[in-house]
Design goal:
Shape: globular
Number of domains: 2
Number of strands: 15
Length: 334
């Protein structure tokens, strides 16, 4: 079986394709023939040695936290109805207990073993790559929609609007009737954000972009900020909020989560929610995933896959993510 391994902690160059033994299927598990493997920014951080207290991985290991494909073998105790099913699933459940934190491992491979409890069926009408693009970002986007509470009278700023969750959040906000301002870097990303429904866009490579956001609101500020950028960009986005607004920080594409001045937020009546305020139980997350898969089947939401590369080019996929060059999702194709 071909798979990508992280040989040692370091840059993208430590990702190497190897021939590894076929994974064994144990009780309660299923073997998935992988059609596509999810590539997340988290994968690049862990590959570099970040977050080992929470993600205790030891090289050599196979990175990747999710796959789409077809079940080709089941272990004892697994419902026979899963055989041959098209599925998406989280990987990294080494002991078959999804109650434990999921390690971002075992995804970049031709085949992956996952617990039966991790399997979610993909509707026939939904392309496996589109389904995989929804695996993590779909439930996140629905959680953002709930937390934001936007509607027809709401102006929403989506920071990192061309990212995986950002592209979905733009679409959900527009479907709710909100006015959407999408913030991203560069013409290609801004064009995508407009295509997905944002009425206005701002380029946050320009130093005066927060002033432009405020100008677009007539100086009043936005009602909601969905911050997938973090860092200095997230802090600047916070400054575009109207008094009484809501700030939802869920991403760290800028290298860290946004540090909000809690005294200022309290003084201005701004509600601040972070990533852990959006957390869902595994069962709830799978229900949310089924919901967005059905929305995709009905054409009500369209995930955007901006980069799909073979396993041999995993290093290129990581470099593109680190260079903020990916529009939407990045995937690997075995």
């Amino acid at each position: 079986m071909r798979a990508v391994q992280v040989e040692e902690f370091g840059g993208p160059e430590v990702l190497v394709v190897r021939d590894l033994p076929e994974p064994e299927v144990g009780p309660g598990q299923a073997l998935v023939e992988v059609a596509a493997a999810n590539v997340m920014y988290l994968d690049t951080l862990v590959r570099g040695g970040w977050g080992l207290d929470y993600f205790p991985v030891t090289p050599p290991y196979v990175p990747g936290a999710g796959v789409a494909g077809r079940v080709v073998r089941i272990g004892p105790g697994v419902d026979p109805g899963w055989e041959g099913a098209a599925v998406v699933a989280d990987t990294g459940h080494a002991d078959g207990t999804p109650e434990r934190p999921t390690l971002p491992v075992d995804g970049y491979a031709e085949r992956a073993v996952v617990p039966e409890s991790a399997l979610v069926r993909v509707p026939e009408e939904v392309d496996p790559r589109a389904a995989l693009a929804l695996l993590h970002d779909g439930p996140t986007a629905l959680a953002l929609e709930r937390a934001a509470g936007f509607g027809p009278s709401t102006t929403v700023l989506v920071a990192a609007a061309a990212g995986g969750a950002g592209t979905l959040a733009v679409q959900l906000a527009r479907r709710a009737g909100a006015r959407v301002i999408g913030a991203a870097r560069g013409g290609a990303k801004l064009a995508l954000v407009r295509e997905l429904g944002a009425q206005e866009t701002v380029d946050y490579s320009e130093p005066d972009w927060p002033e432009r956001v405020r100008a677009l609101t007539g100086g009043a500020g936005v009602d909601v900020v969905l911050d997938g950028a973090g860092g200095a960009l997230g802090a600047a986005a916070f400054g575009t909020l109207a008094d009484g607004g809501r700030f939802v920080g869920y991403g760290s594409a800028g290298g860290s989560f946004t540090e909000v001045d809690t005294e200022e937020a309290g003084r201005r009546g701004i509600e601040v929610l972070g990533l852990f305020d959006l957390k869902q139980a595994d069962g709830d997350r799978q229900d949310a995933l089924r919901m967005v898969l059905e929305m995709a089947r009905m054409g009500r939401i369209t995930p955007h896959v901006g980069l799909a590369l073979p396993l041999e080019r995993a290093a290129e996929a990581h470099a593109a993510l680190e260079g903020r060059a990916v529009l939407g999702k990045a995937l690997l194709i075995p």
